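Here is one chain, start to finish.
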Amino acid sequence: MKKISKKDIRQEVFDLYDAYAHNKLSRRAFIDQLSVYAVGGITVASLLSFMMPNYQDHLLVDPQHPDLESNYMLYNSSKGAGEMKALLTRPKNIDEPLPGIVIVHENRGLNPYIEDTARQAALAGYMTIAPDALHPLGGYPGNDDAGREMQRQRGREEMLEDFIAAYDYLKQHPKCSGKIGVVGFCFGGWIANMMAVRIPSLDASVPFYGGQPTEGIEKIQAPLLLQFAGLDERVNAGWPDYEAALKKYGKDYHAYTYPDVNHGFHNTSTPRYDQAAASLAWERTIRFFDQKLKP
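Its structure:
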């Protein structure tokens, strides 16, 4: 059986995976359509295995990193789920309050990639909170297929309230300076956009390939850093109207589109990952937060 590399994968396969990952295709339909591309010694099984997330081998920060305090905790979300669980992470041996960042997951719950991203941000000098929107249903189940199905059982407006409550938790935390931003990916990118609409005191928002708000854009006070994947036609279709509204209302924003990369390019766990684009986007993210959240 041929060993697959990213260069063996046609763009149509990435497009199929995007449709599957966003509930546009069932697993059976995804597998059936993959069969068209199982040629030249590549089997459907090997292609499917290659496209699925592999978290264990692609974390960038050791979960037990000696310079970090990282623990699960519960917080109150009175307008959302009631009780929420999150990963709270900050650098060790720093007494003074730190700025905070809410880390918002994709459409599948708090998986290892998002926890890894929270640790990366903490190593940059931030107190991070990464909620799990699946907590009311038992929490992230350990695989993304089940996670997506679970998240579909919750309303996104209620989940938005859960992430707003995470902001409130940081705002009141004695070890947080009160300067708080948000970064989110996919579904989390929509949350990051919507938190900017809903929270006048939010200090910075970084949506990665996130859906755009269509109302309330005039209410945004936070500076925005918007990150897009060049091949992501689905999300990018809404950007021109959003940008026009941001310009109309004189909002502070910068947008970057990374050419020739797919939706999910920052996620290390699948072949959509693009190291160069992800590294540059993350460097820009931390520089932006440093400018907006640190003295």
